Amino acid sequence: MKGLTITILATAMCLFTIGCNTSNKEKPSPKAKTTSQLNKKKPKGLQKGCYVYNDNRSTISLHVIEKEDTITGTLLIALAEKDKNTGTFSGHIKDSVLLADYFFESEGVESVREVAFKIKNDTLVQGYGPMELKDSIQVFKNPSSLTFDAEFPLVKKACVD
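RESULT FIELD:
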């Protein structure tokens, strides 16, 4: 019995070794995702889910949905004594900063402007800087020189429907 077990194990190891060394290895299809491609989809520090600031007077809520290389989601900004705006965003991450176009409605008027959030672990901090109108969209004049103000830190929390 012991000899049979050794023979079976030796045969299995030989087959495994031969299988690993064959030259007819299956090539991944062009649509197959590599590990590095999958890692690009999940930028470090940014996760799907909700990031919220709420001090009982002001609320900012950002819901992140990752989509391929584009980060999308919804954003609500309701600051005390300011007009509330709500809408969707679509953008990209570069150097730990989410830079996105924000399509929103405020006081019944639809608008588009650029928004920026610096990613710091499970917190997002909004970026500010001079803006200009370009193709009917308010964009940052110089996105690389934004100021990130931690006055309204958005902290990752469980999403509430």
